[in-house]
Design a protein that fits this description.
7-stranded antiparallel beta sheet, two-stranded antiparallel sheet, 16% strand, alpha+beta, Beta-lactamase, 29% helix
Amino acid sequence: MRVDHLRSLTLFLAVLSLPVHSSVAATPLPVSSPASQQVDPQRLESMHELVGGFIDNGRYAGAATMVVRNGKIIDWQSWGKASLRTNAPVEKDTIYRIYSLSKMITATAVLQLLEQNKLQLNQKVTDFIPELQALRVYKSGTVDDTKHEEIKTPITIEMMLNHTAGFTYDFFNHSPVHSLYKKADLFNSESLDDFLGRAVELPLLAQPGEAFNYSISYELLPVIIQRASGMKFEEYIRENITMPLKMSDTAYYVPKEEMHRLADIHFEKDGKLKAATKGIPHYAEKGRGLNAGGAGMFSTIGDYARFAQCILNGGELDGKRILGEKTIALAMKNSLPEGSSAFIPSQGWGLMSGLFLDIPGETSPVSEGTFFWYGGSTTHFFADPAQNLIGLIFVQHVPMDAHGLFNPFRESVYQALD
């Protein structure tokens, strides 16, 4: 037997050796060998060595990865500890705080309501949230004495989806606006209404539609989803996205009986990794804290792979369609104003996630049109329509990607393609 076939068979059998909590948890997507999906199993070992090295060297407590090609899982690995506090290992069904990976799911709900003719992308946000009519834009001044100007262009739903509405986040630190956000302590809100009540008192960082500013717009979109659908936000997500896609471990809380599967978030103190037990506003207990549209979900790597595969398929998985193909195509076009980018020049933003666009300016071996994003506790996925390829890596560590794992992980997956 050839060595590459032997390695491929070994990886294939490893993928089959999964924990069985339900049929979907065991095999969230069909399973295949790397070689049969045009992936070199020997070169894939480089990715395993890369990730394993980050764990062995103590930079991260644990990690899980998954590679999907042509709709089939060809590699699924786990390393290290889900919790240094309890010594629990990372399992293939470990539950993670996915933070900003929640945004794609929230955007999907908005686009479903577009298809239902319950809203329009160019519609004014104040049609659904009249509380925002009093918003003003920061012009100058200090935290204690800010000068404002009138909004020149109404905020639209599209601006909320592509982060050009003028809002920001409190973890940036570029102006007095960010200090005001920190003072408002938005993410310790107890409900969407509480969050909205705090947000309407804050100035916008920029005029709507002028520039990309990663922001709380995805925390305000759930208000629109509720008011347009007539359903509670979390109920809408469950009934229209996670339940149809059989994402049984994806929600805004972790059931009490599954809490042992929840990974701790880790950080470094005095040169050692420790589990964070305080300062995490996204509570795992049902009914506690904010169901944040941009950061509040819990999920497994297998569940999120199902969601990513559904979007990569054009909105359908296992006979369940959650979005139309043309809606997906629209969502995967760069929607940012000319001259704007999503943090770096080679990256844009559609209506759901970041996009790799300017390949001459991109140093990673990634196809143009690949959609991707990151979560604040070090979770990352990318999905490449040209290669029919998905890669996911889930860690629980802050600050996000503190040791630079995401790019080499993605590169090592691409370098394994035949």
